[in-house]
């Protein structure tokens, strides 16, 4: 089980450059143990780099990171951390059963029942060679290998991308069960925001290699207001809207929509409400979104 007195992942001015290009820079995060974290952002935002740094597969160019109070890549950190990367680095020539056997021999914390539970949801024949499986079934095998290790920190890079909707539902259920039963901290990147928001309690949004938003999901949403109205009223905006930072606004047909940081009191004929997490993230990711929104540390406290 995770210790309760240390963060599952903590970074301090963490950065990684490839040549002259920075994939991640000035990353300050504190993710509480036992949380389920959605890592969002466009392609090239630095999500995979952050996960690989946390797993110890990359070394920082600047700053440092800790996982469960340990330096990523050290023996104890590797034993308690599992990463399922986008390319699902399995052994294509092995059968599914042989893949799990390799996992058992290489990991002292191995739990065969936990690994088999993932495979049973897809009825994967153990004698099938991994290289002959569909991308979705390879994802299941990779996830089975990761959960079989019984990690305290599970890092998943686009685990839902190759899965159809029923399979995504099953996989999300497995992840939530592991989090509930063992307190496993789960950090996963995904572009499927409407499904990911059903299970995450924390969110980290990266854009151009920097943290744009971070914190508990619900407080981040309530710290913003979605405002909608007819375009013929756009020239007469609510007074509060002119005084608060507008993250992003748009006009679709005859409807004006804006996402604002801060509370906007109801004002006829404008409609105001708390945005969904998907709406919040899409607004902050929009090319025209303002970039002055402060990123709050994901400490488990109310933050925005």
From TrEMBL:
UniProt-listed SMART domains: AAA
Molecular function as annotated in GO: ATP binding
Tree of life domain: Bacteria
InterPro entries, per the entry: AAA+_ATPase, ABC_transporter-like_ATP-bd, ABC_Transporter_VariousFunc, P-loop_NTPase
Gene3D superfamilies on file: P-loop containing nucleotide triphosphate hydrolases
PROSITE patterns assigned to the protein according to its UniProt record, in alphabetical order: ABC_TRANSPORTER_2
Residue ranges of every copy of the ABC transporter domain listed in the record: 9-233
Assigned keywords, A-Z: ATP-binding, Nucleotide-binding, Transport
Pfam families recorded: ABC_tran
Name of the protein in its database record: ABC transporter ATP-binding protein
């Amino acid at each position: 089980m995770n210790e309760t007195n240390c963060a599952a992942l903590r970074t301090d001015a963490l950065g990684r450059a490839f040549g002259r290009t920075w994939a991640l820079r000035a990353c300050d995060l504190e993710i509480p143990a036992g949380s389920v974290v959605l890592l969002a952002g466009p392609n090239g935002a630095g999500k995979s780099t952050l996960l690989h740094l946390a797993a110890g597969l990359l070394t920082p160019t600047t700053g440092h990171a800790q996982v469960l109070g340990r330096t990523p890549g050290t023996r104890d950190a590797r034993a308690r951390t599992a990463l399922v990367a986008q390319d699902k680095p399995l052994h294509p020539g092995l059968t599914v059963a042989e893949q799990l056997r390799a996992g058992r021999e290489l990991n002292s914390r191995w739990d065969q029942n936990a690994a088999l539970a993932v495979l049973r949801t897809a009825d994967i024949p153990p004698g099938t060679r991994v290289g002959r499986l569909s991308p979705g079934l390879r994802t299941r095998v990779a996830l089975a290998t990761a959960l079989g290790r019984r990690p305290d920190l599970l890092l998943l890079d686009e685990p839902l991308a190759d899965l159809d909707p029923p399979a995504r539902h099953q996989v999300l259920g497995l992840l939530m069960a592991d989090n509930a039963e063992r307190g496993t901290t789960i950090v996963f990147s995904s572009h499927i925001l409407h499904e990911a928001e059903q299970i995450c309690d924390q969110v980290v949004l990266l854009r151009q290699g920097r943290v744009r938003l971070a914190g508990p999901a619900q407080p981040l949403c309530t710290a913003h207001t979605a405002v909608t109205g007819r375009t013929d009223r756009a020239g007469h905006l609510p007074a509060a809207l002119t005084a608060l930072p507008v993250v992003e606004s748009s006009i679709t047909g005859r409807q004006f929509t804006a996402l604002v940081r801060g509370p906007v009191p109801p004002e006829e004929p404008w409609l105001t409400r708390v945005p969904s997490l998907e709406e919040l993230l899409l607004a902050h990711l929009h090319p025209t979104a303002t970039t002055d929104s402060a990123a709050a540390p994901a400490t488990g406290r109310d933050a925005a």
